[in-house]
């Protein structure tokens, strides 16, 4: 579902400075969109307006479909344990109790925090709390997913899971808009970029994958390969009917996960890269 902002103006309180002014923006489904700008430029404000958490004083915000948001700061002092909180939010977002529990357990497992499912949120470590903050936004598979510094505080494995979740959402037709201090976050995966400056938005080119960095080579056999693959790998058909995919090593986990979950199925023959210089056969 296409998201449209037209002439959007936002300020906090009457007489306050305009944080956003005359903002026009069209975001298509399937996009992974980076928002950047200096400290205090209004990135979080833009995400909150898109999330429907802050109201624009001027202009129109057209964001049909469901929305989910990871705030920059997650309120930790909630009277729930992690699983009850996720199940509760799943219900709020319209999932049945059964499906909500399954989705909550799915994300607890993917983030490696099943062991903390029964721990009150206020007693979780910062990193685990952040995983719950991200999981609450991922469980409903929203049409518009807004991530405000969502990677901050996550360990390496969880950052990889979030990268994968973003590409899965976009591949399923969702739209993802994110802010992150790491300029290389989702490099090679973003479809558009916007800079917030003096209340206005300026289109900037999407960040490309580091072509000079370490590469991973994945050889696959498939009836048909998905069109959009994480990391935009180079493709070379080989004489034996397999295809050689060449991707920045940073995207190899995400690419492999996507390949293994593809329909029609993709058979992964071998993986070779900086972590497996000799190659491995799954
Ligand atoms: N609830 C609020 N009430 C009043 N002013 C606010 C509020 N939230 C944000 N602001 C102000 O709006 C401006 C933009 O803030 P915002 O958090 O959107 O910027 P940002 O680009 O996300 O900043 P950062 O990179 O530091 O997170 C700042 O001057 C900030 O102080």
TrEMBL record:
<keyword id="KW-0067">ATP-binding</keyword>
<feature type="domain" description="ABC transporter">
    <location>
        <begin position="3"/>
        <end position="223"/>
    </location>
</feature>
<keyword id="KW-0813">Transport</keyword>
<keyword id="KW-0547">Nucleotide-binding</keyword>
<dbReference type="GO" id="GO:0005524">
    <property type="term" value="F:ATP binding"/>
</dbReference>
<dbReference type="Pfam" id="PF00005">
    <property type="entry name" value="ABC_tran"/>
</dbReference>
<dbReference type="InterPro" id="IPR003593">
    <property type="entry name" value="AAA+_ATPase"/>
</dbReference>
<protein>
    <submittedName>
        <fullName>ABC transporter family protein</fullName>
    </submittedName>
</protein>
<dbReference type="InterPro" id="IPR003439">
    <property type="entry name" value="ABC_transporter-like_ATP-bd"/>
</dbReference>
<dbReference type="InterPro" id="IPR027417">
    <property type="entry name" value="P-loop_NTPase"/>
</dbReference>
<dbReference type="GO" id="GO:0016887">
    <property type="term" value="F:ATP hydrolysis activity"/>
</dbReference>
<dbReference type="InterPro" id="IPR051782">
    <property type="entry name" value="ABC_Transporter_VariousFunc"/>
</dbReference>
